[in-house]
C-alpha cells in the first residue's frame, strides 16, 4: 500500500501544478485567502480530493462532464461513501457552477465550513 500512496502523492503534486481553469478560479479567487487552511489535491486512501478543509472535515470536488456519465456517477458514489466513513463531507459543484454562480458557490462553501466548525466545537457529531 505504501507504493500506491507514494504514487498518489506524486500524482496529487502533478494535479496541483496542472489545476483546471475552474480549480484555479476557486483557489486563487477565494479559497487561498480564507482564515482556515485549505489543502489542494489531498490524498485519502486511494482517492484524491480537489480541496480539503481539515477544520471542517470537508472535501470540495469540482466536477466536469465525465462525472455525469454512468461510470463517473458510480465511481463518485463509492468514493463519497468511503470519505463519509472517515467523517468527511463532500461538497460537489459542477464546473458550470464555478463559471456562472461563483459567488453562490463561495457562500455555500462558507456556510458548510461554519456549520461544521461550530458543530465540532460543540462536540456534536457531524
Report the span from N to C terminus.
Answer: 29 Å
Number of helices: 5
**Overall mean pLDDT:** 89
How are the strands of the biggest sheet laid out side by side? 1-2-3-4
Q: How much helicity do the residues have?
A: 40-55%
Number of beta-strand segments: 4
The major beta sheet can be summarized as: 4 strands, mixed
Segments where pLDDT lies below 50 for 5+ residues?
none
SS-derived structural category: alpha+beta
How large is the radius of gyration? 15 Å
State which percent range the strand residues make up: 15-25%
Secondary-structure element series: HHEEEHEHH
Shape: globular
Which helices and strands, and how do they pair?
Layout: H1 2-17, H2 21-29, E1 39-44, E2 47-53, E3 58-63, H3 70-85, E4 89-94, H4 95-100, H5 102-121
Parallel strand pairs: 3-4
Antiparallel strand pairs: 1-2, 2-3
Notes on the protein architecture:
- This protein has 126 residues and is α+β, with helices and mostly antiparallel strands.
- 53% of the residues lie in helices and 20% in strands.
- The protein has five helices and four strands.
- A four-stranded mixed β-sheet has the order 1-2-3-4, sandwiched between helices.
- Helix 3 links the parallel strand 3 and strand 4.
- The longest helix is centred in the C-terminal third of the chain and has 20 residues, at 102-121.
- It starts with a helix and ends in a 5-residue tail after the last helix.
